[in-house]
Amino acid sequence: MSCLIRKSISEKITQIVRNNNVYYELETPLKRRTNTLGKPVLQWHLKGNGTKSASNLDILKAVSALKYDSDLIEEVRTVQGSGKTPDKVEFVLRETPYVQTLLQEPFEHVPKRNEHMVFEYSSPNIAKPFHVGHLRSTIIGNVLANIYKSLGYQVTKMNYLGDWGTQFGLLQIGVEMLQITDEEMRRAPIETLYKAYVKANKEALVDESIAEKARNYFKQLESAQQSKKLGQQWQKYREYTIQELERVYKRLGATFDVYDWESQYSQTHIVQVLQALDSKSLLLPEKDGRKVVEVDDRRVPIIKSDGSTLYLTRDIAALLDRWQRFQFENIFYVVENGQSDHFKACFHTTSKLEQAITMSKLKHVKFGRIHGMSTRKGQAVFLKDLLDEARDIMHAKQIQSPTTKIDVNSHDVADVLGVSAVIINDLKQRRQRDYEFNWDKALQMNGDTGIKLQYTHCRLHSLLEQNDHVHVTNENLAVECLKEPEALDLLNELAKYPQILWQAKENLEACILVNFLFGISNATSRALKTLHIKNEADRRKQQHRLLLFKSAKTILKQGMEILGLQPLNKM
Ligand SMILES: NC(=[NH2+])NCCC[C@H](N)C(=O)O
């Protein structure tokens, strides 16, 4: 993915305000619209320094002191806010330079920033199937990391796979009971491990000794008494699992720089954590032999009575280790709402152990549940089945559709479409919201879906391809060539892009970018209806329109790639 974004008018205005030494910083522009005279207008809130917000009087003073480039800006005024909302500053722009700048400004590299951001997401357990929560974590985490990257941050994308805990002992019992061969495991590791897990759980229901055996197994494993052979065997299972997961990640457009395992944090690291907790007198003994820490009056277990460690203990060790490795500015854990208490305990305890890891560096990025996400035949256990189903439905639709332009014998395009639908359906909601999954809605061509974004991208691609003989350049622009409201609308939409990325980053909400792309899509369809190329006799107009559509395609493509979509040229 490239990290090009468009330098926009808003940046220019930010510069003007900075150059004027205005004490108050501009927030991202709120609105871009035309005023009653049809002139382009940008509105901004002014933000105070630090926590103090600007008073209306301050804003007035700041604005009246503003010196600006009157070739670009016609007028600067304040607009009264209502009730609690503060006043805004409005920049009335001169249309010609405004349009020219939008069309002319080169797509340039965002300056690199030094802050290192770590994103942990996906993080499934190999003992259990990849469930919908992991799907959400995968796509939300991937997009947020991509947004930060596109804004110039140093980003590490991390997956933290669950392969430790009592379940792991249970899994080993299942593998033995079913006498699973290496070949079977290599062919379908996720399914096979799941089979073993189900088997052991089922047996445990009728045979009480199994749970006990599993606990013992795990304790043995953890105290490093395991045979070398067993260790190697599990190493192999892990490798197979990653290989299989990567096939699914590839379809989802998700990538990782680092794969970590819970089992990495079983021995040396844990001992260090326990010593550190002890030396700060944070580790409290319970009567039953457990050891706990106190978090907001809750007593949270760190060590079980048999001495083995817990999920939380390993997370504390992992966080300390990540700090050593990355010296991050922030670390983001993209994990469902349900684990709030866990992360609270982890963050509180770790920041007490290492002062440099302040609470403000640690972020639990929560998200809600999806209901009803199963294949149409029944419960979806594996993510792969779900994506296959989306692909098959899209394939059937393509065979029926009169507008299909590709060879329907290939499933590749159908797969990209199905996956796009699943991703966008998820990302268009605010992440904390629970929602109901609906196959028909997700796969619609006309609603706000991934299919629509793909369709717009294909239309723009074919338009530019058909007209590649027309010379398109952004020199000698004549604004009169783009007078139509549809053209100005599309331009206005495109100009929002840098602020949209910034807002999506500030709120950690991918839906801000998704809705922006729907806006681009709609403005593009309207523009395509009125701004013809072939039937337009004026060559200059043709060129300007193509330039506009080219910008639309570039931004749409880039936005889609940030979301993990693979933009199609034909469908
Ligand atoms: N650092 C973490 N605890 N990340 C989240 C891990 C999620 C865990 N493997 C689960 O599936 O529930």
Write the layout of secondary structure elements.
Layout: E1 4-6, H1 9-19, E2 25-26, E3 31-34, E4 40-47, H2 56-64, E5 73-79, E6 88-93, H3 95-104, E7 107-109, E8 116-120, H4 132-150, E9 154-161, H5 166-177, H6 182-187, H7 189-206, H8 209-222, H9 228-252, E10 258-261, H10 268-279, E11 284-285, E12 291-295, E13 298-303, H11 311-326, E14 330-334, H12 340-353, E15 362-365, E16 370-371, H13 383-400, H14 412-427, E17 435-436, H15 439-442, H16 450-466, H17 485-495, H18 497-507, H19 510-530, H20 539-562
Parallel strand pairs: 8-9, 8-14, 9-10, 14-15, 16-17
Antiparallel strand pairs: 1-7, 2-4, 3-4, 4-6, 5-6, 11-12, 12-13
The structure holds arginine.
Arginine (ARG) binds next to loops.
Domain DALR anticodon binding: 453-571
Function: Catalyzes the attachment of arginine to tRNA(Arg) in a two-step reaction: arginine is first activated by ATP to form Arg-AMP and then transferred to the acceptor end of tRNA(Arg).
Family: Belongs to the class-I aminoacyl-tRNA synthetase family.
Could you write a compact summary of the structure shown?
The chain is an alpha/beta fold and 571 residues long. The protein is built from 20 helices and 17 strands.
